[in-house]
Amino acid sequence: MAWQAADPATVAKRLGEDEVHLWRLPYRPAQRRAPLLALLAAYLQCPAEAIVLREGEYGRPSLMPPQALDFNWSHSGQQALVAIARGIALGVDLERIRPRPSAMDIARRYFAADELAWLETVDDPAARELAFLRLWTSKEAVLKAHGRGIAFGLDRLSIDLRPAQPRLRRLEDENAAQWQLHAVPIGDGYLGALAWRGPARTLRAHLLADAPG
Questions:
Q1: CB-neighbour burial class of residue 109 (10 A; exposed 0-12, middle 13-18, buried 19+)
Q2: Which of 40, 119, 170, 190 has the fewest CB atoms within 10 Å, counting from its CB?
Q3: Which tens digits make up the pLDDT trace of 10-46?
Q4: What does the DSSP 8-state code read for residue 111?
């Protein structure tokens, strides 16, 4: 996946029904949702001030009134990741890579048994923390797309990291085979993940060099 600098207004016109558009952009806390709203405005062809977002029962934001266009976003450190598509519910997660000394304690308390067992086979502490973060971002992405978020329970789904791409092995009360899950290569000390329920789609990765501040 190659990130290409692009103009949102131009890219938005090319959003296909079988595509997911990913945007990587700078993030500063003072901006709050301004960069997200600017991107959505390009796709909706309206001023950013006209966009109304609502948060569902479990905190997932969506457009009001409901539309075929769906989005999800995540930010960590100085980066943000936005996914946009039509006709599917998306989930993305972005995390900055940093030391996480409590990673295994969290895994023992909240992860599925098979995930914990696999993590315990990773001998190198740094590699184990990175594997933990890959699991975490994958689980977050799935649960955001699912709509319930972490409140659903991190142990009610299981991720397999052994393939080249992460694979959803189990999701309680769902057919895991119907889900798409992708690692999103961010670089620069970040990890990302993207998920949705439905057929495979083409991913288009775009880089926004500047964001409204």
A1: exposed
A2: 170
A3: 999 999 999 999 999 999 999 899 999 999 999 999 9
A4: S
pTM of the complete model = 0.94
Give the residue carrying structure tokens 């079988």: 18
**CB within 8 A of 124, min separation 6: which ones?**
none
Q: Which amino acid is residue 29, in one-letter code? A: P
Q: How confident is the model at residue 1 (pLDDT cuts 50, 70, 90)?
A: confident
Residue 3: name the closest of 71, 81, 76 by CA. Answer: 81
Nearest CA to 196 out of 19, 29, 64, 66 is that of 19
Distance (Å, whole) CA 174 – CA 185: 27
H, E, C per residue of 153-181: CHHHEEEECCCCCCEEEEECCCCHHHEEE
Q: Measuring CA to CA, which residue among 6, 25, 34, 7 is closest to residue 78? A: 25
Name the residue type at position 204: R
Q: Which residue has tokens 């964001």? A: 211
140 token code pair: 């977050």
Contacts of 40 (CB under 8 A, 6+ apart): 48, 51, 63, 69, 71, 84
**Does residue 43 sit in helix, strand or coil?**
helix
Asked if residue 73 lies in contact with residue 82, where contact means CB atoms within 8 angstroms, the answer is yes
Task: Please tell me the distance from the alpha carbon of residue 102 to that of residue 112, in angstroms, as a whole number.
Answer: 17
Return the bridge partners of 24, or none.
Answer: 81, 207
Task: State the helix-helix crossing angle for 103-110 and 125-146, rounded to 10 degrees.
Answer: 40
